C-alpha cells in the first residue's frame, strides 16, 4: 500500500458538529473527498441538508441532522440515528462552538450566566460529544476536538472562551489515555484566524475589512480557510495518524501563541 493510501477514509462514517457552515462544512466535505460517509449536525436544517447534498455529489452517503449541541439529549439521539442509518461510527469531529450572542465580555464584567454559557458551549459540549461518540465506536475510532489558538494566549473579551479551549486540551489528553485501550485516538485542532460568518458578526466587520485587519498579523501573510483546517482533520482521522493521540496542532499560519 502506498503512503498516499494512508490518508483514505473509505468505509468510515464521520459526524461533524457545527457542520453546516464555515470550518465544520469544510471538514465535512474534506472527509467525504477522502472516502468517508458524513453526517453534518447543526441547528439549521437547511444548512446541514445542503452539506449532505454536497457529500452525496462526491459519491458518498450524506445526512443532515438538526440538533443543538447544548441540549444534552439531542446529541445522543442524533448519534443513535447515525448508528441506525449507517451501521457504525468511526470519526467524531466536535466542531460546534464560539459565542452565541456574538458579543465580547471582559472577565471583570462577564455575568455568571454568560460565563456558564461559554463553558458549556466550548468545553462541555465537546466533552459530551466525545463521551457519547466513544460509547458508540467499535474497533477503534478517531475523536477530533476543534478549539482555537486562543487557548494558549491572553484573549481580552474572550477570556472564558480561551479558558474553555485550554480546558479541552487537558481533557483531550486525558481522554486519549483513557480511550487508548480501545484504539480510539483523541486529538485537537486549534485554528487561527479564519474569516467565517461568526468572526465577521462578532467583530462587526465585512469580509474585506477582516482581511485588512488580520492578514498582515499572520507570518504566512493570509488568514486561514476552512480547507486549511480540514486538511488537519483528515490527517488525524486517517490511518496515517493511527499512532498519534492526545495531541493538538495549531493551524494558524505561523501566528505566535
Short recap of the structure:
By secondary structure, the protein is α/β, with parallel strands linked by helices. Helix content is 43%, strand content 15%.
Structure description:
With 257 residues, this protein is an alpha/beta fold. It has one domain: Rossmann fold, CATH 3.40.50.720. It has helices at residues 22-33, 45-57, 74-86, 112-135, 159-179, 197-203, 207-214, 226-237, and strands at residues 13-17, 37-42, 62-66, 91-94, 141-146, 184-191, 248-251. The chain has a 7-stranded parallel beta sheet with strand order 3-2-1-4-5-6-7, with helices on both faces. The protein is globular, with a radius of gyration of 17 Å. The N and C termini lie far apart (38 Å).
Topology of this structure?
Layout: E1 13-17, H1 22-33, E2 37-42, H2 45-57, E3 62-66, H3 74-86, E4 91-94, H4 112-135, E5 141-146, H5 159-179, E6 184-191, H6 197-203, H7 207-214, H8 226-237, E7 248-251
Parallel strand pairs: 1-2, 1-4, 2-3, 4-5, 5-6, 6-7
Helix pairs in contact: 1-2, 1-8, 4-5
Strand content: 5-15%
The name of the CATH architecture is: 3-Layer(aba) Sandwich
Largest sheet: 7 strands, parallel
Structural class: alpha/beta
Strand order of the largest sheet: 3-2-1-4-5-6-7
Number of helices: 8
The structural domain count equals 1
**Series of H and E elements:** EHEHEHEHEHEHHHE
Sequence stretches where pLDDT stays below 50 over 5 or more residues: none
Fourth CATH level, the homologous superfamily: NAD(P)-binding Rossmann-like Domain
What is the CATH topology classification name? Rossmann fold
CATH class division: Alpha Beta
State the helical fraction. Answer: 40-55%
- The residue-averaged pLDDT reads 95
Over the alpha carbons, how many angstroms does the gyration radius reach? Answer: 17 Å
Amino acid at each position: 500500500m502506498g503512503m498516499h493510501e494512508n490518508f483514505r477514509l473509505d468505509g468510515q462514517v464521520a459526524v461533524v458538529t457545527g457542520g453546516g457552515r464555515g470550518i465544520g462544512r469544510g471538514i465535512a466535505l474534506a472527509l467525504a473527498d477522502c472516502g468517508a460517509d458524513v453526517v453534518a449536525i447543526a441547528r439549521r436544517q437547511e444548512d446541514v441538508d445542503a452539506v449532505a447534498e454536497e457529500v452525496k455529489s462526491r459519491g458518498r452517503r450524506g445526512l443532515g441532522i438538526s440538533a443543538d449541541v447544548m441540549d444534552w439529549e439531542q446529541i445522543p439521539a442524533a448519534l443513535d440515528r447515525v448508528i441506525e442509518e449507517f451501521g457504525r461510527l468511526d470519526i467524531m469531529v466536535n466542531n460546534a462552538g464560539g459565542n452565541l450572542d456574538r458579543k465580547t465580555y471582559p472577565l471583570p464584567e462577564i455575568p455568571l450566566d454568560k460565563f456558564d454559557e461559554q463553558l458549556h458551549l466550548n468545553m462541555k459540549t465537546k466533552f459530551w460529544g466525545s463521551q457519547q461518540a466513544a460509547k458508540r465506536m467499535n474497533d477503534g475510532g478517531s475523536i477530533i476536538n476543534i478549539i482555537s489558538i486562543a487557548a494558549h494566549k491572553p484573549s481580552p473579551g474572550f477570556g472564558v472562551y480561551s479558558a474553555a479551549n485550554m480546558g479541552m486540551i487537558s481533557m483531550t489528553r486525558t481522554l486519549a489515555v483513557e480511550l487508548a485501550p480501545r484504539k480510539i485516538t483523541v486529538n485537537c485542532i486549534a485554528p487561527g484566524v479564519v474569516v467565517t460568518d461568526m468572526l465577521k458578526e462578532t467583530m462587526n466587520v465585512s469580509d474585506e475589512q477582516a482581511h485588512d485587519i488580520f492578514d498582515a498579523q499572520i507570518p504566512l501573510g493570509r488568514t486561514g480557510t476552512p480547507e486549511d483546517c480540514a486538511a488537519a482533520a483528515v490527517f488525524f482521522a486517517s490511518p496515517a495518524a493511527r499512532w498519534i493521540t492526545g495531541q493538538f496542532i495549531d493551524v494558524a499560519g505561523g501566528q505566535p501563541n
